[in-house]
Queue: 3 jobs
Job 1
Amino acid sequence: MKDVDRETQEVRSYVRERMSSDLPPRFVEDVMSDVHRTPQRRRGWFGWPIAAGIAAAAAGVAVVGIGLSLINGDEAGVEPTPSASAAPEASASPAPSGIPARPPLSYPPLTDSGSRATVIVDRLEVLDFPVNSAFVTELGEGTQVLLTEGPLSVEGLDWYEVSFSWLPSDPGYFADVTFGWVAAGPTGQPATSISIEPPRCPDSVTANVVGGMSGLARLQCLGTGPHEVTGVIHGCTDYYVGGEPAWLFTECLNLLNLDGTFSNLFIFFPPGIDSAGYAEGDVVRVAGHVDDPAASECRVSNPDPAMAAVEPALQILGCRSAFVVSAIEVTGHLELPQ
Amino acid sequence: LREIVRQAQAGRTEAFEALVEHFGAQMYRLASAIVGPDDARDVAQETFIAAWRDLPRLRDPDRFEPWLRRITVNRSRNALRGRQRRPALSLDQAGPGDYLAEAGDFREAAHARQALDGAFAGLSAEQRAVIVLHYGADLSIGEVAESVGVAVGTAKSRLNAALRCLRAAVKGQP
C-alpha cells in the first residue's frame, strides 16, 4: 500500500509540475483583441429552435438544418463561425500511411462497434453537452459519425454523443477523437438530423472488446444476455463520489487482459454475489450482463444542480452499460509485474 | 464574480476582460498540462474566444468556472486530436542524446521524469484531462466528470486507467 501511495504521490507531483507554467506575455491583450472582433451568439442556448423543430418534425419535415441555419445565420448580424463552411471533419477518408505505432501504455482502443450515423441536414451543430454547453463545431451533410452514448432525452429532444473523427479504416484509436452531443430529433421519434444505421457488433466478446465498447455499443450489442469473459483481477482505487445502489458505484475490481494489459472492463457485483476473496492476479472467468434492471434506479449521490436536466438520465445510461456479474470462478493465478 | 459574468453576458467587454485576467493563468496551466506548453497558448486563447461567443448561453453565472474549464478541456482534446498522428517519443525510441548524463540522484530523477513523460504521452486526451483535473487541480471526481462532460463512472474508469499507466511508469524506475 505504501508503494501505491508513493507512486500516486509521484504522479501527483508530476502532474502539478506540468501545471506550473506562467501565463505568456500579452495573453490578455491578445484575447481581448480577438474578443472585440467576435460577436456573441445571442439566440437559444440549446442550439436548436425547439418549438419550431418539434412542430415541423411532427409534420414530417426535417428542419434541423433550417433551424441551425437560423441560429448560425445572419439575421442578427452574427457571422458564421469558421467551421461552419469548413469541410466535414470526419470524411471517411483512409488513414494516412505511416501511422506511428501506438504507445504501449495507451488507452485500449474504442472498438467501432455500435451504430454509425450520417448527417442528413446541411449543418448539424455539435455541443459539448446538451446543457450549459459550448459550441464545438458543425458537421456538414454526409459526415459520418459513430454514436457513443444516448439517446438522452432533454427537454423534448433526443441527444446522442457522437465521435466524429473516427475513421473506418483505422482500428479505432479512442485517444484523440472528438466527441460532442447532437440533437437527433424529437424524443421517441425517428431521428431527423442523422440517419442511424443498425449497430455493428463484434463476432466475439472478450474483456478487451467489452472494455473498449462505448456505453451505447454495449447496450446495442450485448443486450441483456449473459456473456462470458476471462481476465485477471486487478485492484481498485478509492473515489470520492458514490451513488445508489452502492454496488453499481463500486468499481473495485477491473479485469486485465491475460497479457497484463488494461482492458478497461470494470465488473460489478450485485447483491447475492460475493465480491470478496479475490486476489490481484487471480484469473477469473466471469459471466456477466449489461442493462441490469437495477440501473433504472441508479442515482449519483451528489447531483450537480447545474446539470439537473441531464445528469440523472446520463447516470442511468452509465449504469445500464455496467458489466454486472452473474457468476464468477477463479481458474488460475498470474503473478503480475510489480 | 456573478455580477461580472452577467455583465459579460450582456456584452460588456471590460467585464469579460476581468474574467480573462482572473481565470487566464488557471486555464492556461490546465491546457499546458494536457497538451504541453507549445499548444497551450492557442488552446487557452481559443477557450476564451469560445467562452465570449457562447457566454449568453450560460444559464447560471455561478457555473462560469466549471463551464470554462470544460471548454478548455474540450479545446485541449481537439488540439491533441489534431496531432494524433505525430509519433510520441518513448523511452525505447529516444536516442542516447536524449538522456541526461548527470550521475546519481539527479540521473534517477531525470529517468523518472522521462518515464512519466513517455507514459503521459501515451495517455488519451480524456485520460490526460481527468488525471490533470483530479491530481493537478484537486477536483473531485464529480467535478472532473462535469469538466470533461462525461458520466461520473466514465470519469472514474478513465482516471483509473490513466493512473495505472503512470504508476506503471513510476514502478519501472530503479
Note: Residues 84-105 of chain B have pLDDT under 50 and may be disordered.
Job 2
Amino acid sequence: VDKELGLWLATVPATPQQRRRTFALIAALFVASCATAPFAKIRLWESPGFIPTVQAIIFVTALITAALLLTQFSLARSRALLVLANAYLFTAVIVSVHTLTFPGAFAPGGLLGAGLQTTGWLYVIWHFAFPAAVIVYALVDRTPVRASTRSVVGGSVAAVIALAVGILWFLTAADDIVPAVFVDRRTYSPTALYLGAVDTLVGAAALGLLLRRGGSVLDQWLAISLAATTVELAMSSFFSAARFDVGWFAIRIFSVVSSTVVLLALLTETTRLYAKHSIALRALHRERANKLLSAQAATAAIAHEIRQPLTAISLNGSAGLVYLQRDPADLGEVRESFETIVEDCRRMSGVIEGVCSLFRIGDLAGQPIDMNEIIAEVIGMQQYQLARAKAETHRELMAGLPLVRGHRAQLQEVVANLVNNAIEAMEATSDRDRVLRLKTQLRGRDAIAVEIQDTGPGIDPKRLGEIFDAFVTTKPQGTGLGLAICRMIIDHHGGELTASSDGKSGAQFEVVLPVMRT
Amino acid sequence: MSRYLAVVDDDTSTREAVAGLLHGCGFASRAFASASDFLASLTSRMPDCLITDLEMPDMSGLDLQRELLRRGLRIRTVVIAGHDSDSYRKQCRDLGAAAFLVKPVGRDALIAAIS
C-alpha cells in the first residue's frame, strides 16, 4: 500500500500530467512578467503600508511551510527536507526583519537601527539564500538523518535564527562600508543591478536543476515557486527602477505567489494523500471483514454438512466391530459396514468440495434491508472516486421501495463493486459525459431491481457470458474475483445478477432481489 | 420381552447406520424417513425407545416430541442434533427427552442413551 500511494509529498513521484501543469504555470508566470515589463518604470503612488501587509503574508506562509516541512522531516528523516524547511524558516525571519527595517513602514528610517542600505541588502540576501538552499536541497544526498530529530531540528532552527540576527547586526553596523544598493530612499544604485543579476542567475540555476530532475510532487511546486522568485528578481534587477513603480509592485505580487505556492501544495496534496489512504484503509477493512465472514460461513457450512456422514461412518464402524466380535464373525455384515463407510467417505469429500467451491453461506438468516439506503451509503463512500473521475451521478430511486432480506455488508460489497467498476470503466471516456446512473424499481410483484449503468466503453457482447467467471477480468489490474463473488452473493440471496452492453456506449448491471416476505 | 426401537432421520445414511448398529447390538429396530411416517406406524406397535434427528424438514424432532405429548404418549426419546446448542438442549429436556446427543455420535454414547 505504501509503495502504491506514496507516503510523503517529498517522495511521491510527479506524474507526467503534474509535470505538464508545472511547465504551464511557469510559462504563465513568464508571460505575466513580460506583460508587466514595458510598464515597470511607471511611478505609482507611494504606499509604505503595502510592504508590511504583503510581507506579513509571506512571513506567515513561510513559517507554516517551514513547520510542515519540519514535521515531514521528523517523520521521513530526509536531509533534503531539513534543508528546505530551514530555507523557509530563514525566509520567515529575514522577511520579518526586512519589514521592520523598511523605511516608512513602521518608522521613517525603519526600525532596528536600520541604515539606508539595510533593507536593500536584506532583500538581496533573502533572495540569494532561498534559491541557494534549493540547490542544496536538490543535490544533498538522500540518506536519512540518523541523529535524534529533536536535536537536529532544534539545532538548525537556532542556527538559522542566529544567522539572520548576525546578518542584521552586521548590516546595521557596517552600513557605510557595504557597497551601496540605494542612492536615496527610493532609487537603486548600479550595484543593485549586479547583485540582482547574481540572485536571478542563482534562482534560474535552482529552477533548471529542479526541472531537470523531474522528481517528486514537492519538486514540481518548488519549481513553480522558484520560477516566481526568478521573474521577481529579473523584474527587480532589469525593469523596476525605483521603489513604488509598477515593477516594484509586481515584484511583491510575485513574491507572494512564490511563498504561497508550496504551502498550498503541501496542504492540498497532504489532504489528497490522506483521503487516498483513508479510502484504501476502509476498503481493506471491508475486504477483511468480508473474507472473515465468508471463512466463518464456509466453516460453519462444512461443519454442518460433514456431521451427517461422520455420524454414519462412526456408527457403521462400531457395527462392523460388533459383527467381527461375534463367534463366528459375521463377515457378510462386516463387509456391508465397510462398504457403507467407504460410500460415506466419498459423500463427505463431495460435501467439502461443494462448500469450498461455493463459499456457501450456511444459514442465511439476514435482516431487512432497504437497497436505496445501501446505494446512498456506497455513493457516500465513493464520493472521492466519483469526483476524481469527474463523473456525475444520476439517481432514480423509487420511493417506498420494498425491503429485501439479506446480509448488509455483502449487499454493500456488491453495489460498491459494481459502482467501482463503473467508475473505472468511465475513466476511458472522453468523448461524452461520464454519468453513473443508479435506478431502483419494482420487478413484477415479488422482486425489486437495482440498475447500475455507466457511460464507459461497455463490454463486448460476446464476452458478457464469461465476465462473472472467477479470474476473468477486463481490467488491467484486477483479480477477476469481484464479479464472481458478487454473483455468488446475489445467488445466495435468491436473486440474480446480470449484465448487458452493446459494447460501445456503456454497460448496465442489474441486481434483482426477491422482496422480503412479511 | 425384547426391546423394540424406532429410528427417525431424514438422512438415509445416518438412519441406516443407526439401525445397522442397533441390529448388530441385538436390538430390534425400525427406521423411518420422517416423523409423520413414524407417527402413522404407532397404531400398529409402540416402541420402547425413540431415536430421532432434531433437524428435519416439515416436522422437526421438537415438533415430534410435542406431538407425542399432545397425544399423551410417553416414549423414552433420544434426540440427535446436527450441532450443539444450549437452547435446543434445554427445549428437548423440557419436552421430556432422555438424552441429547450431538453428531457425530459414537456407539457407546448411543447405547448408553437407549438403555
Note: Chain B has five helices and five strands.
Job 3
Amino acid sequence: MNEPSGNPAPPGAAPPREDGAPWPYASLFFFGFFGTDSPAGKRLAWRTTWGLGLFLLGAFLLAPQHTVTSVGGFLAMPGGVLLIGRAYRSYLRELDELSRTIQLEAFSLAFGAAMTLMAILMAVEMVAPPGTHLGPGTAPLATWLLLAEPFRGLALVIVARRYR
Amino acid sequence: VKNQIRVLRAERRWSQADLAERLGVSRQTVNAIENSRYDPSLPLAFRIGRVFGRPIEEIFDFREEEAPQ
C-alpha cells in the first residue's frame, strides 16, 4: 500500500491500488446496513440482535397460551424496539455524510411506500363488499409496519446505486 | 459540481482508500464525489482542500447552469 503523503509522488513510484468502490448491496438489501466491516456496523449488529431478542422474549411472555404474563413481558416488547431504535440512531451518527444520506433517504422511501400500501389496502377494504378483509382489520398492525423493512432494503439498494 | 480530486489524487499516487482514510469517510464516498455523483458538505469540502493544500475553488468548479432550479 502506498503510504499517503502530502507531496506529489516521485517519478517512477508505484501507481495506487485499483480504484472503484461498490456499495455492499447484499448487506444493504438483506440486513439494511453497510455490513460489519466497520466497528459501527459491528455495534449495530450486536445491539439490534439484543433488541430483537428482547422483543421476542416479550412476545413469548405475552402470548395467550402462556400463563406467565408479567410486567417484564409488557416492558420487553417496547423495550426491544426502543433498543433497536437507539442502536440505529447511534449508527447513523457514526456514518460518514454520504452513507448517512443514503440511510435517511431509504428510511423516508420505505416509510412512504409502506404507508401508501397500507392506505391502498384500507381504501380497497372500505369499498369492497362486506366481509372482505385486506387491511389491518384482519392482521395485527405490526405485520403491516414490518412491510417497511423489505421496502427499506430495496430502497437502500436503489439509493446507493445513484451514488456509485 | 465538477472537481479535480481524481487529478490531484493521481498526482500524489494515492488510492481512493488512502484519500478516504485521510478524510475520515468511506471509499465509496470518495468515489461518488470524484464521479460528481455526490456534492460534499461544506465541512468535507474544506477538509478536502486542506488535504490537498489547495483552496476549495481550485478543486471544485461550480457552474450556475448546473444548479437545481
Note: Residues 1-5 of chain A have pLDDT under 50 and may be disordered.
